[in-house]
Sequence to fold (110 residues):
Amino acid sequence: QGSGRCARCGGHMITDFDAENKVLRIKPGSKLTAVTSPELEKLLKDRLFEARKLIVDMSDTEYVSSAGLRVLLWAHKIMLDKDGMVIVGVNEVVREILDITGFSDIFNIE
Fold:
């Protein structure tokens, strides 16, 4: 489990790993952009190998750019060979971004 202050993303990048069930839960800050996406990508590169399932909690995320979508797609592809990736807590603005770009047809959004 970890939490790190991310001034550029307007909040904390929170992670939690359930070792028993091998579930990695991440909660990006308020913005997932070209500036903040590298931090998420590094975190995922460090932690995805041990996870069977990835939960991305976007309840604090207000905006996702194409760079953020690229990182999410990369993680999604890795998790296809495992138990998958689920995105939860999506607000209307982020949902519209996912719908317009077609990513809502690719990602499992709950």
